[in-house]
Write a structure and sequence with these properties.
It contains 13 helices and 21 strands. The chain has helices at about 20-30, 50-55, 65-85, 100-115, 120-130, 150-165, 200-205, 205-210, 245-250, 255-265, 265-270, 305-320, 360-370; strands spanning about 5-10, 10-15, 35-40, 55-60, 90, 95-100, 120, 140, 145-150, 165-170, 175-180, 180-185, 185-195, 215-225, 235-240, 275-280, 285-290, 295, 325-335, 340-345, 350-355. By secondary structure, the protein is an alpha/beta fold. The two termini are about 40 Å apart. Helix 1 packs parallel to helix 6, helix 1 (about 20-30) runs parallel beside helix 13 (about 360-370) and helix 3 (about 65-85) packs across helix 6 (about 150-165). Bound molecules: flavin-adenine dinucleotide. Flavin-adenine dinucleotide binds near residues 17, 23, 201, 331 and 364.
Length: about 400
């Protein structure tokens, strides 16, 4: 079928391709600057991408460098948008539970290095989160982190932006991008600036840019389940596995010893690149994850062994005999070695913005001000950060 791209839409100051959190962030920034903006997405709504398949965890506290700068700005914007668009952004913080001496060593080093982080003893951990008290040796509270319901937040932001005059064109696939012009499966859009926020599908529109940065797809096992907890989980929960993943923790002197300790105690966890973590959407169920497999493509077939691992570790952590799985899904996000962001201007006025590790909910809303800084103004370029695979 020939795409019907012969009509030309009115010209906009900014056209955004992709209505995930990164694309919505740029539409919001353009709106704040008083610019006219259109968003095109090939899906029928903000219902399909990584931005609805995740934990809804804005993990501000343990970010460093460039990511920390974006995360700090994103935190403000999450709270502003929650008020404006009418969704919940909980100022929950995050609890980290340590169940071994190796985990506790990293937690203690991190808490000593970060004035925001509160060190918790074992009693305080089991009072705050409904884990099995038995092996808990301590933990920490990360106060800056936020929690949203990922299935609520992006659609609510899109609806609100539309009410403020942002033009959304759903079920519209961007086919080609050049300076000043996007051809799509419906119409040609002309714009002063174009922002490409297609996540891992950056390689469909800009294959050479993606290849140069070694961008691939990272796919994850995710579950939603009912679990008979001692009491409801009201904060995001990290385990020792999470301490290997975020740049602030991973930089601690004991992180290497923790990796070896986890490798020895649960080799399957290392094989599946486990990040055992939890959030609880506001209905009381648990979002449970996750594993990581990286490749150019993300075949849809999820090996049951990945789910079995995550379920077994969940039952062990909470000291329950059986969890009742409601949903299983595959998450996919862009991943690139040695970098957390691919932010480039490959053509004049065409910006590619891809978060290349699993921190787009944390940082995405904070990236847009520097990308869309009015031309000729100095942008505050945050210092570069050490990339860690999340
Ligand atoms: C399982 C999982 C758990 C995660 N957990 C967390 C977490 O706890 N905290 C955190 O900070 N981050 C987390 N992340 C990462 C975070 O979800 C992503 O970094 C973020 O959602 C990326 O946003 P995005 O807008 O770039 O991509 P997406 O949300 O994937 O949006 C991209 C959009 O582009 C559209 N699109 C693609 N190509 C085209 C085209 N040619 N034309 C038109 N439209 C197109 C797609 O339809 C899609 O809507 C997680 C990710 C996953 C998968």
């Amino acid at each position: 079928m020939t795409p019907t791209s012969s009509t030309t839409a009115p010209a906009f100051d900014v056209v955004v391709i992709g209505a995930g959190i990164v694309g919505l962030a740029h539409a919001y920034e353009a709106l704040l600057q008083g610019l006219s903006v259109a968003v095109v997405d090939r899906a029928g709504g903000a219902v399909h991408g990584a931005s609805v398949r995740n934990f809804g965890h804005a993990c501000i506290t343990p970010q460093t460098g460039e990511a920390r700068g974006y995360a700090t700005e994103a935190r403000r914007r999450w709270l502003d948008l929650a008020g404006a668009a009418g969704f919940t952004a909980r100022e929950s913080g995050t609890v980290v539970v340590a169940r071994t001496a190796a985990e506790l060593a990293v937690v203690e080093e991190y808490a000593a290095s970060d004035p925001d982080t509160e060190r918790l003893d074992a009693r305080a951990v089991v009072d705050r989160v409904p884990v099995d008290p038995d092996p808990v040796v301590g933990g920490a509270f990360l106060p800056l982190d936020l929690q949203v319901d990922p299935r609520e937040a992006a659609p609510a932001i899109a609806t609100w932006l539309a009410s403020q005059g942002v033009r959304f064109s759903w079920r519209t696939t961007a086919l080609t991008v050049e300076s000043g012009r996007v051809t799509t499966s419906r119409a040609t859009f002309e714009a002063d600036r174009i922002v490409v926020c297609t996540n891992h599908d950056v390689d469909r529109l800009f294959p050479r840019l993606a290849e140069q940065a070694d961008v691939v797809r990272c796919r994850l096992h995710m579950l939603r389940a009912d679990v008979d907890l001692r009491f409801p989980l009201t904060v995001p929960l990290f385990t020792g596995w999470s301490l290997l993943r975020y740049s602030g923790f991973a930089a601690m002197p004991s992180a290497g010893a923790l990796r070896e300790s986890l490798r020895a105690s649960l080799p399957a966890g290392v094989a599946w690149d486990l990040n055992q973590m939890y959030t609880s959407p506001f209905d009381g169920s648990l979002i449970i994850g996750d594993t990581h497999v990286r490749d150019v493509d993300a075949p849809p077939f999820q090996d049951e062994a990945g789910f079995e691992l995550v379920i077994a570790e969940t039952e062990r952590l909470f000291g329950v005999e059986r969890i009742r799985v409601r949903e299983r899904w595959q998450g996919v996000y862009a991943s690139a070695p040695g970098r957390e962001f691919l932010i480039e201007e490959p053509l004049p006025g065409v910006h590619v913005v891809t978060v290349t590790t699993g921190i787009g909910m944390t940082t995405g809303l904070g990236i847009a001000p520097s990308v869309l800084a009015p031309r000729g103004t100095a942008t505050s370029v945050p210092e570069s950060s050490t990339a860690v695979a999340v």
